[in-house]
């Protein structure tokens, strides 16, 4: 693990923390807005947050808030994005 940390830029950990907390918060806010019948966060935005590194936060947001769990493209798409991100991290670590 030390090798992976040595290869990655110092700011990457901070970036991933911020984007995952943001993804989690946006999923929670969107669920609240859905219950209140207010303006919603576009689904493209929810996916974009996962794609840019917030896969863990998006998945936790789905589970904790029970949000978007009935949509097959979220139920399978968000975990698939996370698997790709983890595979990329593993590849970087092993090379």
TrEMBL record:
Is Transmembrane set as a keyword in this record? Answer: yes
Membrane-spanning segments = 12-29, 45-66, 72-94
- Keywords in UniProt for this one? Membrane, Transmembrane, Transmembrane helix
Any Pfam family hit: DUF1294
From the UniProt record, which GO molecular function terms apply? nucleic acid binding
InterPro entries per the record? Cold_shock_CspA, DUF1294
List the protein's name.
Membrane protein
Which source organism does the UniProt entry give?
Answer: Vescimonas coprocola
